[in-house]
Design brief:
The chain has about 280 residues and is of the alpha+beta class. The protein has two domains: about 70 residues, Phosphorylase Kinase, domain 1 (2-Layer Sandwich); about 190 residues, Aminoglycoside phosphotransferase (APH), C-terminal lobe (Aminoglycoside 3'-phosphotransferase, Chain: A, domain 2, Alpha-Beta Complex), CATH 3.90.1200. The protein contains eleven helices and eleven strands. It has a five-stranded antiparallel beta sheet, with helices on one face.
């Protein structure tokens, strides 16, 4: 059992329990001196830790609109509003996928709402986030391999060259990063990206990860595209293109990690999305 670290005195933390440990962070559920509950995200020291820390800039800028509030920061640790423990994936199981999609669409509207404040300078440009896809496609071109990565990078470049605006984005929105709690549905764990809002919808097509019966279903793919098109005021074909490109990007990340099983899973869903896209 892990012992909780020493937290900054000004956070007024009375007790802490380890809620979760991910590859990147330790997540502590903490009770504060005033009786309130909060969460501490303690980012581990690893090569890509900036991918986690950039999210703090977005949290501070968004000020609780659609996202949990950032209550404090001390180096690699963030004191966060407690968002609840009910994930959107659980709501999907108990109600319906359509209801879950509507909730995700509402979250994105709040995340993308206008602000009088300038976007944080530290956000990652969307083109930079696609770097692994561009690298994999470059390797495939040299090998004269016509794998989906080459097609995906062409789609991604077209989208990046003609964005529908440039907004601060969550960057990793999916069913387990949306929670229900005291303030209703809120997103957690943003990556902090700047670019076309269509990118934020992409990962939702691939989730929940254990529901390939949904993720591979053409009617579900088309329905999500139509819902997000209506709420985001974007062409559903663009949203499907983003979903296809994102899936191949995610597969490229898995390839870099040597995770062939998840790479193949992402490519299978991407192929289903591409097929639906051809019918639009």
């Amino acid at each position: 059992m892990r012992e909780p670290p020493t937290f900054p005195r000004q956070w007024e933390i009375a007790s802490a329990d380890l809620l979760d440990e991910t590859f990147s962070s330790l997540i502590w559920k903490v009770a504060r001196d005033d009786g309130s509950i909060a969460v501490v995200k303690d980012v581990k020291l690893f090569d890509d830790m900036q991918d986690e820390l950039r999210g703090a800039h977005l949290l501070a800028w968004r000020r609780g609109n659609g996202l949990v509030r950032l209550l404090g920061q001390d180096g690699n640790r963030m004191l966060l509003e407690f968002a609840g423990e009910r994930h959107l994936s659980e709501n999907l199981d108990e109600q319906s996928d359509i209801v879950a999609t509507d909730i995700a669409a509402d979250i994105m509207q709040r995340l993308h709402a206008s602000s009088e404040d300038a976007p944080p300078a530290a956000l990652q440009p969307l083109a930079e986030r696609f770097s692994s896809l561009f690298a994999k496609a470059g390797q495939d071109r040299l090998a004269e391999d016509s794998a989906p990565y080459v097609e995906a990078v062409t789609v991604a470049q077209r989208l990046l060259d003609a964005p529908c605006g440039a907004l601060p984005l969550h960057g990793d929105l999916h069913h387990d990063n949306i929670l229900f709690g005291p303030r209703g549905w809120l997103a957690i764990d943003p990556k902090g990206v700047l670019g076309d809002p269509g990118f934020d919808a992409a990962n939702l097509f691939y989730n929940p990860l254990d529901r390939d019966d949904l993720c591979l279903a053409p009617e579900r793919i088309a329905g999500m595209a139509e819902t997000f098109s209506r709420t985001m005021k974007q062409d559903p074909r663009r949203l499907l293109d983003y979903a296809f490109a994102y899936g191949c990007l995610s597969a490229a990340w898995h390839r870099e990690d040597g995770n062939i099983r998840d790479e193949n899973r992402e490519l299978a869903v991407a192929a289903a999305i591409r097929q639906v896209r051809r019918g639009f």
